[in-house]
Amino acid sequence: MGEKHIDELSGVETTGHEWDGITELNNPMPRWWLWTFYATIVWALAYTIAYPAWPLISSATTGVLGYSSRADVTNELAAAEAAKSTYVEAVKAKSVGEILADENLRQFATAAGSAAFKVNCIQCHGSGAQGSPGFPNLNDDEWLWGGNIEQIYTTIAHGVRFDGDEATHVSEMPAFAEILEPQQVNEVAAYVASLSGQADTPELVPAGAKVFADNCAACHGDNAKGNKEMGAPDLTDAIALYASGQTAIAQQVRHPKHGAMPAWGDRLGDVKVKELAIFVHSLGGGE
Amino acid sequence: MLDDREVERLEVEAVNSARTRQPLYTARQKVFPKRASGRFRQFKWLIMLITLGIYYLTPWLRWDRGPYAPDQAVLLDIANRRFYFFAIEIWPQEFFYVAGLLVMAGIGLFLVTSTVGRAWCGYTCPQTVWVDLFLVVERGIEGDRNARIKLDGAPWSFDKLWKRTAKHAIWLVIAVATGGAWIFYFADAPALLGAFVTGQAAPVAYITVAILTATTYAFGGLMREQVCTYMCPWPRIQAAMLDENSLTVTYNDWRGEPRSRHAKKAAAEGLSVGDCVDCNACVAVCPMGIDIRDGQQLECITCALCIDACDSVMDKIGKERGLISYATLADYQSNMAVATDPVTTAIDPKRVRDDKGKLNAAIAHFRLGRIFRPRTFVYAGAWSLIGFALLFALLSRDRLEVNVLHDRNPQLVRLSDGSIRNGYTVKLLNMVPEPRNFELSIEGLPGAAMSVVGMDLPESRSITVEAEPDKLKTIRVYVRQPRENLADGQSFKFIVVDKAGSETDSYVAKFNVPEAGR
């Protein structure tokens, strides 16, 4: 280097670099570009002072403006809570029946209940509330513990066969394998299956009817229509909680399965339970 | 033969002239267009009046649509996703009408360009119209071309200061009004104006006005012809759109050359000269700062002001108008063939005019028939076809629509009596600004009946739904079919009828049942 190379055509100094006869002009940076570059440096330094930036051993500088994205989220959540507080207060103050009668409130509660359902209920009842064997379908019009809005509310609040809640629904069907003779079990299974038109051995039905009257009618009723007070299902309809058919019924008579549901009242609070009740009631089977 | 009256010669050089051509990165050469007057200038004033009138006044036109819709004739209601154009109301899913209009605008541009060249650029392009408007202001304050050149070169003085301040101030007012008019298309104009001046309008309104003010001021006042030459893609595309039968502003050198500043002297010496007296009037009036005598150029927006300027000179020296005229390349070439000496290949004025100064009978400046040709008919045909198709679609379109979504989960529900229930979300589109009662019924699906969530009604095959004006009504419908009627693969129709009118729409839906054997 040392000596200056000047490009003849433009009169501009070159860097001295040359490729195949093409030399690189040493034009200075445009001023606007240079000042923008300096400005970004100043901006960056100021930013790291104003906002959280420099990592320390166990935390980071907080910045003189005290900004925190976590606080931002908290504020936004608080704002969202405040925005719906009128509805929430109304839900808190009113009974489920009153909420159901109020169009706006019902829509709010249905939407809120739908969200709560997706978090807390779909694990057993399914994302469409369609249930599965042993877990009731909430869309249909068969209710073990009653399908009007108050009954749904009570069931959700206190659960079914849930140890931690004194007001929980409790009922237990005895294991008839230890009470009835095997033949009697077959007879009563044939009778119960015949109620929904699916008996495999119709000749056993008359005998089964007698077994039923002696052993089952106390809970399931003389006409086998069930009893919602004690969660005894209606045995005459087309819906079966576990499985339908005479064999499955015989199995259930011998060693009954019993579903359980937690009490949600203490876990979610009264407002959420009301919203859930309104949502479940809206699924098509609400009475 | 030649008129003795002197024609003033103007000192002006085209900004892109080959003689003084500069590298691309040189600073802009200022253009000081001289005031022109004549037929085309008159026409352009009229076009300016109409286009600016449309732009500024349209948002203030009212159109009564009843109590449930805005009364602004043209309104792009983005917040509510409605577009109102006089009697037409467009919903977002009907926006293809606007797409159709854009296609028509494209083909229309082809049609116009292939027949009358860059008429869009020269007469109606907003850039041209606003530059014209800004030039009127400039000329009113600073004077015509010579005065402006003098002022521009003068040192700063009180006179220059106030003139420049006044000019830029008025430009800014026009720019603000331009940006201001734009936002009125998107909201109720009187209400928005009130909110705007009292500082109550939405930030986006102020931002939009600020951006459009800046662009109008910069494009119309400061950049002017550079927008057309350097920024606009259309001058580059239009080369592909023009052919030898398209009209362009043409310097008819077959009658102008050889040009002479001293025609009288030349005639006395027995030299044969053309009509062009080289007065530069055409260059001086050009808003693009070019010399049309150099031939058709990318910069030329065909504003035709040089025609006006030249015509007035031709009137003065007693020649026919049209030394610079609208002409097609084909006209030009056939005239050129007449004018050119086959031996010397130079233009010979004696071949153009006889001894009495009368033009050769084989010469015609412009033949109208040339612009009617298959190409223009195809464009016109395609343009009209799309136009009629859109019009037909618009006149026969539905103002009532029903859409149905089958529940995905659960697909079906078995009820205690063995019947099967399917759930549907039914969307009723009431696309007129008045409330209507619709009758929703089902056709097919024996034995089935429906119920609506939230409506305490007995199950029925037909229900009445109240729809709010200009709104989408969504209802959840359960359809239940008794056990004895169940069958695989059934479909049925949701039919919706306007109870007060005759409008109707339907939707074919599926009814799902459990698989056989379950």
UniProtKB/TrEMBL annotation, chain A:
It is found in: Cell inner membrane. Heme c 2 binds at M173, C216, C219, H220. Pfam families: Cytochrom_C, Cytochrome_CBB3, FixP_N. Its cofactor is heme c. PROSITE patterns: CYTC. The chain crosses the membrane at residues 32-50. GO terms for molecular function: electron transfer activity; heme binding; iron ion binding; oxidoreductase activity. One of its GO terms (cellular component) is plasma membrane. SUPFAM superfamilies: Cytochrome c. GO terms for biological process: proton transmembrane transport. C-type cytochrome. Part of the cbb3-type cytochrome c oxidase complex. FixP subunit is required for transferring electrons from donor cytochrome c via its heme groups to FixO subunit. From there, electrons are shuttled to the catalytic binuclear center of FixN subunit where oxygen reduction takes place. The complex also functions as a proton pump. This is Cbb3-type cytochrome c oxidase subunit. It comes from Aminobacter anthyllidis. The lineage of its organism: Bacteria, Pseudomonadati, Pseudomonadota, Alphaproteobacteria, Hyphomicrobiales. The gene is ccoP.
From TrEMBL, chain B:
Keywords: 4Fe-4S, Electron transport, Iron, Iron-sulfur, Membrane, Metal-binding, Transmembrane, Transmembrane helix, Transport. It holds the Pfam family Fer4_5. GO terms for cellular component: plasma membrane. The keyword Cytoplasm does not apply. GO terms for molecular function: 4 iron, 4 sulfur cluster binding; metal ion binding. The chain crosses the membrane at residues 43-61, 95-112, 169-187, 193-214, 377-395. InterPro entries: 4Fe4S_Fe-S-bd (IPR017896), 4Fe4S_Fe_S_CS (IPR017900), Cyt_c_oxidase_cbb3_FixG (IPR014116), Electron_Trans/Redox (IPR051684), FixG_C (IPR032879), Helical_ferredxn (IPR009051), Ig-like_fold (IPR013783). Residues 267-295 form the 4Fe-4S ferredoxin-type domain. This is Cytochrome c oxidase accessory protein CcoG. It comes from Aminobacter anthyllidis.
